[in-house]
UniProtKB/TrEMBL annotation:
Domain DprA winged helix as annotated: residue spans: 316-374
Name under which the protein is recorded: DNA-protecting protein DprA
Chain positions covered by the region annotation Disordered: 293-318
Domain of life: Bacteria
Family affiliation: Belongs to the DprA/Smf family.
Pfam family, one: DNA_processg_A
Database matches in InterPro entries: DprA (IPR003488), DprA_WH (IPR041614), DrpA_SLOG (IPR057666), RuvA_2-like (IPR010994), WH-like_DNA-bd_sf (IPR036388)
Record-linked Gene3D superfamilies: 3.40.50.450, Winged helix-like DNA-binding domain superfamily/Winged helix DNA-binding domain (1.10.10.10)
Length: 379
């Protein structure tokens, strides 16, 4: 049931007090109950919980009108505000050490209670990595899991697209963002965000208008991990934020999965570290289904549904023209790892000019992807 305007105003006022972080907000709620009781308490009572300076800030008249934009936003169709006292607040987030006091949700808040899998990875992902993210997300969404990710470029966006491709009956996806709910970052994902809001949900704990501040993105990762039963990492460097999500998932008892890659690829090293540290090595969606299906809260679908999902996942994402024997031999020489022209020249015994004459049509027809540094990889 939506909050009354005066109740919502009290929650918004509590979370907008300067210097009063989520931990102290939760301490006040534990001590006094609802925000209206906090603001009705005397200074000495408040100071006993948060100190005199913050007690004065709580009781002072708000500087400017910080809550009016949020109240107007909450009145829009499809806009919801969930608080720790709300029955619709996702139970899974209560299991993490630092649950957000308030969530802004655009779309369907009921999805936040649905069994989910987080799919995360590199922003500068390879074509194969994004293809993997789309295929796994489509398959697992069709099997009944909500795909949770962060709406970033690369793997995140591919995961959302894959989930949406499962169709209106199954294409559930949640985007947890590191900005205010009224701002989309990166801007090129604005159309994708609109589609997610229409078919799934966009979630933020940050006040409206919050810009894309660097330190907010690691914070939102705990919500991604907390909303899901497990985290699948697809391509991650050793300094990737995806490893933070995986660590947070482990700390709150979630499963961690990782797809291995080439030993020569920097984007595989994070996944390989996770596997060495105990993450489950994943080759197919069935590897994830087997693990999560044994946990309470989600039952894998029937074999008929799995078969239908597999047919969709195996469908090619684009129509590719047939290739001749020479092109087939070239693809075999490329292999499944990124390769540079000098290496390919040695493998094929061809000059660089002769290679380009074969590689360019393969690239234009979607069989190859050109990577930074003049390398090529099979699509």
């Amino acid at each position: 049931m939506p909050l009354a305007a005066d109740e919502l105003e009290d929650w918004l006022r509590l979370t907008s007090v300067p210097g009063l972080g989520a931990e102290r907000q939760r301490s006040l709620l534990a001590a006094f109950g609802l925000p209206k009781h906090i603001f009705a308490a005397g200074r000495s009572s408040l100071a006993g919980v948060v100190g005199g300076k913050l007690a004065d800030a709580l009781l002072a008249p708000p500087e400017g009108d910080r809550v009016a934009p949020a109240l107007a936003w909450a009145a829009e169709p499809g806009s919801h505000v969930l608080t720790l006292a709300d029955e619709a607040y996702p139970r899974s987030l209560l299991e993490i050490p630092d649950p957000p006091v308030m969530l802004f949700v655009k779309g369907d808040p009921a999805l936040l209670q649905h069994p989910g899998l987080a799919v995360v990875g590199a922003r500068s992902a390879t074509a194969q990595g994004m293809a993997n993210a789309e295929a796994f997300s489509l398959d697992l969404a069709a099997r009944g899991l909500t795909i949770v990710s962060g709406l970033a470029a690369g793997i995140d966006a591919a995961a959302h697209r894959g989930a949406l491709a499962a169709g209106p009956a199954a294409g559930r996806t949640i985007a947890v963002i590191g900005t205010g709910i009224d701002r989309i970052y990166p801007a090129r994902n604005a159309a994708l965000a609109r589609e997610i809001a229409a078919c799934g949900a966009i979630v933020s704990e940050f006040p409206l208008g919050t810009p894309p501040l660097q330190h907010n993105f690691p914070r939102r990762n705990r919500i991604i991990a907390g909303l899901a039963q497990g985290v699948l990492v697809i391509e991650a460097a050793l300094n990737s934020g995806s490893l933070i999500t995986a660590r947070l998932a482990t700390e709150c008892g979630r499963e961690v999965f990782a797809i291995p890659g080439s030993i020569h690829s920097p984007l595989a090293r994070g996944c390989h570290r996770l596997i060495r540290d105990g993450a489950k090595l994943v080759e197919t969606a069935e590897d994830i289904v087997e693990e999560l299906g044994a946990r309470p809260g989600w039952s894998p679908p029937s074999s008929a549904a799995v078969e239908a999902s597999s047919r969709r996942a195996d469908a090619p994402s684009q129509t590719r023209l047939p290739i001749d024997d020479e092109a087939a031999r070239m693809l075999a020489a490329v292999g499944h790892d990124p390769v540079d022209l000098d290496t390919l020249s040695v493998r094929c015994g061809l000059t660089v000019d002769a290679l380009y004459a074969i590689l360019l049509p393969l690239e234009l027809d979607g069989h190859l992807t050109r990577l930074p540094g003049g390398r090529f990889q099979r699509a």
